[in-house]
Design a protein that fits this description.
The structure holds two protein chains of two kinds.
Chain A: H1 2-19, H2 33-48, H3 66-79, H4 89-101, E1 127-128, E2 135-136, H5 138-148, H6 159-170, H7 185-199, H8 209-215, E3 220-221, E4 224-225, E5 238-242, E6 247-251, H9 253-263, H10 277-288, E7 299-301
Parallel strand pairs in A: 5-7
Antiparallel strand pairs in A: 1-2, 3-4, 5-6
Helix pairs in contact in A: 4-6, 7-10
Chain B: H1 2-18, H2 29-37, H3 44-49, H4 82-85, H5 89-98, H6 119-129
Classes of the chains: A mainly alpha, B mainly alpha.
Protein backbone atom coordinates (compact mmCIF):
# COMPACT_ATOMS: atom_id res chain seq x y z
CA UNK A 1 0.00 0.00 0.00
CA UNK A 2 2.92 2.32 0.74
CA UNK A 3 4.15 1.82 -2.83
CA UNK A 4 0.77 2.77 -4.27
CA UNK A 5 0.77 5.95 -2.22
CA UNK A 6 4.26 6.83 -3.44
CA UNK A 7 3.38 6.19 -7.08
CA UNK A 8 0.22 8.31 -6.82
CA UNK A 9 2.11 11.08 -5.05
CA UNK A 10 4.82 11.17 -7.73
CA UNK A 11 2.25 10.99 -10.53
CA UNK A 12 0.47 14.07 -9.23
CA UNK A 13 3.49 15.98 -8.01
CA UNK A 14 5.78 15.71 -11.01
CA UNK A 15 3.65 17.81 -13.40
CA UNK A 16 3.35 20.53 -10.73
CA UNK A 17 7.10 20.54 -10.20
CA UNK A 18 7.61 20.78 -13.95
CA UNK A 19 5.71 24.10 -14.01
CA UNK A 20 7.99 25.44 -11.29
CA UNK A 21 11.19 24.45 -13.10
CA UNK A 22 14.04 26.88 -13.33
CA UNK A 23 15.48 28.74 -16.29
CA UNK A 24 18.79 27.29 -17.37
CA UNK A 25 20.82 30.44 -17.75
CA UNK A 26 24.19 31.45 -16.24
CA UNK A 27 24.58 30.22 -12.66
CA UNK A 28 21.55 27.92 -12.68
CA UNK A 29 23.30 24.58 -12.78
CA UNK A 30 26.22 25.53 -10.51
CA UNK A 31 26.08 23.75 -7.17
CA UNK A 32 27.79 26.22 -4.85
CA UNK A 33 27.31 29.94 -4.13
CA UNK A 34 30.88 30.65 -5.24
CA UNK A 35 30.43 28.83 -8.56
CA UNK A 36 27.04 30.52 -9.12
CA UNK A 37 28.58 33.96 -8.58
CA UNK A 38 31.51 33.13 -10.87
CA UNK A 39 29.25 31.88 -13.68
CA UNK A 40 27.16 35.07 -13.60
CA UNK A 41 30.24 37.29 -13.51
CA UNK A 42 31.83 35.32 -16.35
CA UNK A 43 28.74 35.78 -18.55
CA UNK A 44 28.50 39.49 -17.82
CA UNK A 45 32.21 40.15 -18.25
CA UNK A 46 31.92 38.57 -21.70
CA UNK A 47 28.69 40.42 -22.53
CA UNK A 48 29.48 43.88 -21.19
CA UNK A 49 33.19 44.12 -20.44
CA UNK A 50 35.08 46.41 -20.67
CA UNK A 51 32.18 48.88 -20.45
CA UNK A 52 31.18 48.00 -16.89
CA UNK A 53 33.84 47.67 -14.25
CA UNK A 54 34.02 47.54 -10.47
CA UNK A 55 31.60 49.77 -8.60
CA UNK A 56 29.88 50.83 -11.83
CA UNK A 57 27.74 47.68 -11.54
CA UNK A 58 25.72 49.55 -8.89
CA UNK A 59 24.59 51.98 -11.61
CA UNK A 60 22.53 49.18 -13.14
CA UNK A 61 20.80 49.92 -16.43
CA UNK A 62 22.37 53.39 -16.58
CA UNK A 63 25.46 51.59 -17.84
CA UNK A 64 23.64 50.91 -21.11
CA UNK A 65 21.89 54.20 -21.62
CA UNK A 66 23.56 57.63 -21.53
CA UNK A 67 20.19 59.37 -21.58
CA UNK A 68 19.11 57.42 -18.51
CA UNK A 69 22.39 58.31 -16.78
CA UNK A 70 21.91 62.02 -17.52
CA UNK A 71 18.34 61.87 -16.23
CA UNK A 72 19.58 60.20 -13.06
CA UNK A 73 22.22 62.90 -12.56
CA UNK A 74 19.57 65.60 -12.99
CA UNK A 75 17.17 64.01 -10.49
CA UNK A 76 19.97 63.34 -8.00
CA UNK A 77 21.02 66.99 -8.24
CA UNK A 78 17.41 68.05 -7.66
CA UNK A 79 17.08 65.78 -4.62
CA UNK A 80 20.18 67.45 -3.15
CA UNK A 81 18.97 70.99 -3.92
CA UNK A 82 16.77 72.35 -1.13
CA UNK A 83 15.05 74.73 -3.55
CA UNK A 84 14.25 72.20 -6.27
CA UNK A 85 13.46 68.93 -4.51
CA UNK A 86 11.01 66.70 -6.39
CA UNK A 87 7.67 66.14 -4.67
CA UNK A 88 7.89 63.14 -2.38
CA UNK A 89 11.59 63.41 -1.55
CA UNK A 90 11.53 65.87 1.39
CA UNK A 91 8.33 64.24 2.71
CA UNK A 92 9.91 60.77 2.72
CA UNK A 93 13.15 61.98 4.32
CA UNK A 94 11.22 63.85 7.03
CA UNK A 95 9.04 60.81 7.76
CA UNK A 96 12.11 58.53 7.92
CA UNK A 97 14.04 60.88 10.17
CA UNK A 98 11.05 61.24 12.49
CA UNK A 99 10.76 57.46 12.84
CA UNK A 100 14.53 57.08 13.36
CA UNK A 101 15.06 59.98 15.77
CA UNK A 102 11.85 60.34 17.81
CA UNK A 103 12.23 58.58 21.18
CA UNK A 104 9.87 55.65 21.89
CA UNK A 105 7.42 55.89 24.81
CA UNK A 106 10.12 54.27 27.00
CA UNK A 107 12.62 57.00 26.10
CA UNK A 108 14.89 54.82 23.93
CA UNK A 109 15.58 55.51 20.25
CA UNK A 110 16.06 53.37 17.15
CA UNK A 111 19.80 54.13 17.22
CA UNK A 112 20.05 52.49 20.67
CA UNK A 113 19.20 49.10 19.12
CA UNK A 114 22.31 49.01 16.95
CA UNK A 115 26.05 49.20 17.60
CA UNK A 116 27.66 52.53 16.64
CA UNK A 117 24.22 54.16 16.59
CA UNK A 118 23.32 52.23 13.46
CA UNK A 119 26.41 53.11 11.44
CA UNK A 120 27.20 50.11 9.24
CA UNK A 121 24.32 48.12 10.73
CA UNK A 122 22.55 47.52 7.41
CA UNK A 123 25.60 45.65 6.16
CA UNK A 124 25.10 42.98 8.86
CA UNK A 125 22.00 41.94 6.87
CA UNK A 126 20.57 39.93 5.26
CA UNK A 127 21.75 37.14 7.52
CA UNK A 128 20.58 33.69 8.54
CA UNK A 129 19.36 33.13 12.09
CA UNK A 130 21.23 30.01 13.19
CA UNK A 131 18.45 28.96 15.57
CA UNK A 132 15.51 29.28 13.16
CA UNK A 133 17.26 28.90 9.80
CA UNK A 134 15.29 31.93 8.59
CA UNK A 135 16.74 34.90 6.76
CA UNK A 136 16.59 38.20 8.63
CA UNK A 137 16.72 41.36 6.55
CA UNK A 138 17.53 44.82 7.89
CA UNK A 139 13.86 45.83 7.88
CA UNK A 140 13.13 42.89 10.23
CA UNK A 141 15.76 44.30 12.61
CA UNK A 142 14.17 47.76 12.39
CA UNK A 143 10.77 46.32 13.34
CA UNK A 144 12.29 44.15 16.09
CA UNK A 145 13.79 47.28 17.57
CA UNK A 146 10.34 48.86 17.64
CA UNK A 147 8.50 45.85 19.12
CA UNK A 148 11.26 45.17 21.69
CA UNK A 149 10.64 48.71 22.92
CA UNK A 150 6.86 48.41 23.09
CA UNK A 151 6.06 50.04 19.76
CA UNK A 152 3.91 48.61 16.97
CA UNK A 153 5.65 46.95 14.03
CA UNK A 154 5.50 48.84 10.73
CA UNK A 155 3.93 47.29 7.63
CA UNK A 156 6.77 46.06 5.39
CA UNK A 157 4.77 47.07 2.34
CA UNK A 158 4.12 50.65 3.54
CA UNK A 159 6.66 52.86 1.82
CA UNK A 160 5.59 55.99 3.72
CA UNK A 161 6.66 54.46 7.03
CA UNK A 162 8.90 51.38 6.66
CA UNK A 163 10.23 52.52 3.28
CA UNK A 164 11.13 55.98 4.57
CA UNK A 165 12.65 54.61 7.78
CA UNK A 166 14.66 52.05 5.79
CA UNK A 167 16.22 54.75 3.60
CA UNK A 168 17.27 56.89 6.56
CA UNK A 169 18.62 53.90 8.51
CA UNK A 170 20.37 52.31 5.54
CA UNK A 171 22.05 55.55 4.52
CA UNK A 172 24.13 55.17 7.69
CA UNK A 173 25.82 52.22 5.94
CA UNK A 174 26.44 53.90 2.59
CA UNK A 175 29.84 53.02 1.19
CA UNK A 176 30.14 49.78 3.20
CA UNK A 177 30.96 46.87 0.94
CA UNK A 178 28.64 43.86 0.88
CA UNK A 179 30.30 40.88 2.52
CA UNK A 180 27.95 37.91 2.73
CA UNK A 181 29.57 34.58 3.55
CA UNK A 182 27.57 31.43 2.88
CA UNK A 183 29.24 28.78 5.05
CA UNK A 184 26.87 26.92 7.37
CA UNK A 185 24.27 24.40 6.24
CA UNK A 186 21.52 26.86 7.22
CA UNK A 187 23.13 29.59 5.12
CA UNK A 188 23.55 27.24 2.16
CA UNK A 189 19.90 26.20 2.47
CA UNK A 190 18.78 29.85 2.55
CA UNK A 191 20.95 30.66 -0.48
CA UNK A 192 19.44 27.74 -2.40
CA UNK A 193 15.88 28.74 -1.49
CA UNK A 194 16.55 32.26 -2.76
CA UNK A 195 18.24 30.93 -5.87
CA UNK A 196 15.28 28.67 -6.61
CA UNK A 197 12.98 31.69 -6.50
CA UNK A 198 15.30 33.77 -8.70
CA UNK A 199 15.52 31.14 -11.44
CA UNK A 200 11.97 29.78 -11.02
CA UNK A 201 9.25 30.53 -13.55
CA UNK A 202 6.20 32.19 -12.00
CA UNK A 203 2.74 33.32 -13.03
CA UNK A 204 0.86 33.00 -16.28
CA UNK A 205 3.76 34.46 -18.24
CA UNK A 206 5.99 31.73 -16.74
CA UNK A 207 8.85 34.20 -16.49
CA UNK A 208 11.68 34.23 -13.96
CA UNK A 209 13.80 36.98 -12.40
CA UNK A 210 16.72 35.29 -14.18
CA UNK A 211 15.08 35.86 -17.57
CA UNK A 212 15.25 39.66 -17.41
CA UNK A 213 18.22 40.17 -15.12
CA UNK A 214 20.63 37.48 -16.37
CA UNK A 215 19.50 36.01 -19.69
CA UNK A 216 18.25 39.31 -21.19
CA UNK A 217 20.11 41.87 -19.04
CA UNK A 218 21.14 44.86 -21.14
CA UNK A 219 18.26 44.36 -23.57
CA UNK A 220 15.26 46.65 -23.82
CA UNK A 221 11.68 45.86 -22.79
CA UNK A 222 9.08 48.48 -23.70
CA UNK A 223 11.78 51.18 -23.94
CA UNK A 224 13.24 50.31 -20.53
CA UNK A 225 16.75 48.84 -20.16
CA UNK A 226 16.88 45.63 -18.16
CA UNK A 227 19.47 45.89 -15.40
CA UNK A 228 21.89 43.05 -14.60
CA UNK A 229 21.52 41.18 -11.31
CA UNK A 230 24.99 42.29 -10.21
CA UNK A 231 24.69 45.53 -8.23
CA UNK A 232 20.90 45.57 -7.91
CA UNK A 233 20.68 44.71 -4.22
CA UNK A 234 23.38 47.26 -3.31
CA UNK A 235 21.30 50.37 -3.99
CA UNK A 236 17.90 49.81 -2.40
CA UNK A 237 15.63 51.37 -1.24
CA UNK A 238 15.46 53.73 -4.21
CA UNK A 239 13.55 56.87 -5.03
CA UNK A 240 11.64 56.13 -8.24
CA UNK A 241 9.72 58.46 -10.48
CA UNK A 242 6.09 58.74 -9.41
CA UNK A 243 3.94 59.36 -12.47
CA UNK A 244 0.88 60.63 -10.58
CA UNK A 245 2.74 63.46 -8.81
CA UNK A 246 5.61 63.92 -11.27
CA UNK A 247 7.80 63.54 -8.19
CA UNK A 248 9.43 60.53 -6.55
CA UNK A 249 8.46 57.80 -4.10
CA UNK A 250 10.30 55.21 -2.04
CA UNK A 251 10.57 51.61 -3.19
CA UNK A 252 12.30 48.99 -1.02
CA UNK A 253 13.84 45.87 -2.53
CA UNK A 254 10.91 43.71 -1.36
CA UNK A 255 8.44 46.22 -2.78
CA UNK A 256 10.35 46.08 -6.07
CA UNK A 257 9.91 42.31 -6.07
CA UNK A 258 6.16 42.97 -5.98
CA UNK A 259 6.49 45.42 -8.87
CA UNK A 260 8.28 42.80 -10.96
CA UNK A 261 5.56 40.28 -10.13
CA UNK A 262 2.87 42.76 -11.19
CA UNK A 263 4.72 43.44 -14.47
CA UNK A 264 4.89 39.73 -15.22
CA UNK A 265 1.22 39.10 -14.37
CA UNK A 266 1.74 36.98 -11.26
CA UNK A 267 -1.62 36.59 -9.50
CA UNK A 268 -1.66 38.93 -6.47
CA UNK A 269 -2.73 36.07 -4.20
CA UNK A 270 0.34 34.09 -5.22
CA UNK A 271 2.90 36.91 -5.05
CA UNK A 272 5.70 36.88 -2.51
CA UNK A 273 5.10 39.81 -0.16
CA UNK A 274 7.39 42.41 1.47
CA UNK A 275 8.89 41.09 4.70
CA UNK A 276 7.94 37.47 3.92
CA UNK A 277 10.28 34.50 4.29
CA UNK A 278 10.38 34.07 0.52
CA UNK A 279 11.21 37.71 -0.22
CA UNK A 280 13.92 37.50 2.44
CA UNK A 281 15.37 34.29 0.95
CA UNK A 282 15.42 36.02 -2.43
CA UNK A 283 17.15 39.06 -0.92
CA UNK A 284 19.81 36.80 0.63
CA UNK A 285 20.68 35.19 -2.74
CA UNK A 286 20.31 38.50 -4.55
CA UNK A 287 22.61 40.38 -2.16
CA UNK A 288 25.28 37.67 -2.26
CA UNK A 289 25.58 38.19 -6.03
CA UNK A 290 26.53 41.85 -5.29
CA UNK A 291 29.30 40.87 -2.85
CA UNK A 292 32.09 43.44 -2.75
CA UNK A 293 29.98 46.32 -4.07
CA UNK A 294 29.30 49.45 -1.98
CA UNK A 295 25.89 50.05 -0.42
CA UNK A 296 24.16 53.24 -1.54
CA UNK A 297 20.61 53.66 -0.22
CA UNK A 298 18.12 56.26 -1.34
CA UNK A 299 19.55 56.86 -4.80
CA UNK A 300 17.30 57.85 -7.71
CA UNK A 301 16.36 55.20 -10.26
CA UNK A 302 13.93 55.85 -13.08
CA UNK B 1 -10.36 0.09 -3.14
CA UNK B 2 -11.73 2.80 -0.84
CA UNK B 3 -8.20 3.32 0.47
CA UNK B 4 -6.87 3.80 -3.07
CA UNK B 5 -9.56 6.39 -3.85
CA UNK B 6 -8.77 8.13 -0.57
CA UNK B 7 -5.07 8.17 -1.39
CA UNK B 8 -5.77 9.53 -4.86
CA UNK B 9 -7.76 12.42 -3.38
CA UNK B 10 -5.08 12.95 -0.77
CA UNK B 11 -2.41 13.08 -3.48
CA UNK B 12 -4.41 15.63 -5.44
CA UNK B 13 -4.65 17.81 -2.35
CA UNK B 14 -0.90 17.44 -1.81
CA UNK B 15 -0.39 18.75 -5.33
CA UNK B 16 -0.58 22.26 -3.92
CA UNK B 17 2.21 21.45 -1.49
CA UNK B 18 4.45 20.32 -4.31
CA UNK B 19 4.57 23.78 -5.85
CA UNK B 20 7.75 25.11 -4.34
CA UNK B 21 7.83 28.29 -6.37
CA UNK B 22 5.19 30.94 -5.66
CA UNK B 23 2.76 31.97 -8.33
CA UNK B 24 3.38 28.92 -10.49
CA UNK B 25 -0.21 28.37 -11.45
CA UNK B 26 -2.01 27.92 -14.71
CA UNK B 27 -4.71 30.38 -15.75
CA UNK B 28 -7.31 30.82 -13.02
CA UNK B 29 -10.86 29.87 -14.13
CA UNK B 30 -12.37 32.90 -12.34
CA UNK B 31 -10.11 35.28 -14.26
CA UNK B 32 -11.08 33.58 -17.53
CA UNK B 33 -14.77 34.07 -16.78
CA UNK B 34 -14.21 37.80 -16.18
CA UNK B 35 -12.14 38.13 -19.36
CA UNK B 36 -14.85 36.52 -21.43
CA UNK B 37 -17.32 39.16 -20.29
CA UNK B 38 -15.40 41.75 -22.35
CA UNK B 39 -15.51 41.60 -26.15
CA UNK B 40 -12.31 40.10 -27.47
CA UNK B 41 -9.87 42.50 -29.08
CA UNK B 42 -9.34 41.40 -32.68
CA UNK B 43 -7.59 44.46 -34.16
CA UNK B 44 -4.15 43.13 -35.11
CA UNK B 45 -2.17 46.30 -34.42
CA UNK B 46 -3.85 46.79 -31.02
CA UNK B 47 -3.30 43.15 -30.14
CA UNK B 48 0.37 43.46 -31.08
CA UNK B 49 1.08 46.74 -29.34
CA UNK B 50 -1.23 47.01 -26.32
CA UNK B 51 -0.60 45.62 -22.87
CA UNK B 52 -3.07 44.31 -20.32
CA UNK B 53 -5.47 41.40 -20.17
CA UNK B 54 -6.48 39.99 -23.53
CA UNK B 55 -3.67 41.82 -25.33
CA UNK B 56 -0.47 40.48 -26.85
CA UNK B 57 1.91 43.24 -25.72
CA UNK B 58 4.28 41.87 -28.38
CA UNK B 59 5.80 45.36 -28.75
CA UNK B 60 7.42 45.05 -25.32
CA UNK B 61 9.94 42.58 -26.76
CA UNK B 62 9.59 42.53 -30.57
CA UNK B 63 10.17 45.55 -32.79
CA UNK B 64 8.58 46.10 -36.18
CA UNK B 65 11.39 48.09 -37.87
CA UNK B 66 9.04 49.00 -40.75
CA UNK B 67 6.87 50.98 -38.31
CA UNK B 68 8.91 53.36 -36.17
CA UNK B 69 6.07 53.61 -33.63
CA UNK B 70 6.48 49.91 -32.96
CA UNK B 71 10.16 49.89 -32.03
CA UNK B 72 10.26 49.62 -28.23
CA UNK B 73 12.03 46.41 -27.31
CA UNK B 74 14.76 44.05 -28.46
CA UNK B 75 14.39 41.10 -26.11
CA UNK B 76 13.00 38.99 -28.93
CA UNK B 77 13.88 39.03 -32.63
CA UNK B 78 12.46 41.88 -34.74
CA UNK B 79 9.55 41.20 -37.06
CA UNK B 80 11.41 41.02 -40.36
CA UNK B 81 11.65 38.30 -42.98
CA UNK B 82 8.82 36.44 -41.32
CA UNK B 83 7.87 34.42 -44.41
CA UNK B 84 11.40 33.18 -44.88
CA UNK B 85 11.82 32.47 -41.19
CA UNK B 86 8.46 30.69 -40.97
CA UNK B 87 7.59 29.24 -44.39
CA UNK B 88 4.77 27.40 -42.62
CA UNK B 89 2.58 29.96 -40.81
CA UNK B 90 1.24 27.20 -38.57
CA UNK B 91 4.70 26.98 -36.98
CA UNK B 92 4.59 30.71 -36.29
CA UNK B 93 1.21 30.28 -34.58
CA UNK B 94 2.58 27.35 -32.59
CA UNK B 95 5.51 29.52 -31.43
CA UNK B 96 3.14 32.25 -30.23
CA UNK B 97 1.00 29.63 -28.51
CA UNK B 98 3.92 28.01 -26.68
CA UNK B 99 7.49 28.92 -27.62
CA UNK B 100 8.74 26.80 -24.72
CA UNK B 101 8.13 23.74 -26.88
CA UNK B 102 10.85 24.99 -29.27
CA UNK B 103 13.11 26.78 -26.75
CA UNK B 104 12.79 25.40 -23.19
CA UNK B 105 14.42 28.42 -21.52
CA UNK B 106 12.57 31.08 -23.47
CA UNK B 107 11.31 34.24 -21.77
CA UNK B 108 8.29 34.33 -24.13
CA UNK B 109 4.98 33.72 -22.34
CA UNK B 110 2.94 30.73 -23.58
CA UNK B 111 0.07 32.82 -24.96
CA UNK B 112 -1.96 29.85 -26.13
CA UNK B 113 -1.19 27.25 -23.47
CA UNK B 114 -1.96 29.65 -20.61
CA UNK B 115 -4.97 31.15 -22.42
CA UNK B 116 -3.50 34.67 -22.48
CA UNK B 117 -4.86 34.90 -26.03
CA UNK B 118 -7.48 32.85 -27.86
CA UNK B 119 -6.52 30.73 -30.91
CA UNK B 120 -8.43 33.28 -33.02
CA UNK B 121 -6.36 36.17 -31.63
CA UNK B 122 -3.14 34.23 -32.22
CA UNK B 123 -4.27 33.67 -35.79
CA UNK B 124 -4.87 37.43 -36.25
CA UNK B 125 -1.42 38.32 -34.84
CA UNK B 126 0.32 35.68 -36.97
CA UNK B 127 -1.35 36.98 -40.15
CA UNK B 128 -0.42 40.57 -39.17
CA UNK B 129 3.29 39.96 -38.58
CA UNK B 130 3.50 37.66 -41.59
CA UNK B 131 3.43 40.76 -43.85
CA UNK B 132 6.80 41.96 -42.50
Amino acid sequence: MKNIKLVLLLAFCLPAMAIAEGVNTAGYSEKTPEATLKAIHTLFSKEFSPDIKGDNWVKGSMNFNKGSEEYNKLMTARMNDDFDQPVGYPEAMAAGKKLWETPFANGKKMADCFAKGGKGAANDYPRVNAATGKVEVFEHALNKCRTDNGEKALDYGDMKTMGALSIVARRLSDGERIKIEVKTDAEKAAFNRGKEIFYGRVGKFEQACAHCHIQKAGKIARTEDLSPIIGQAAHFPVFRIHKATDGVHVITLHKRYQGCQNSTAVDKKLQIKPGSDQSSDLEYFHTYISNGLPLSAGVFRK
Amino acid sequence: MKKIIFLAILSMLMLQGCKTTPGSSAAAPAADAKKEAKPLEMDPKKLFSSSGKGMGNCTACHAIPADEKLVAGDIGPPMIGMKSRFPDIEKLKAAIADQKVFAPDTIMPPFGRNKLLTPEQIDVIAQYIYQY
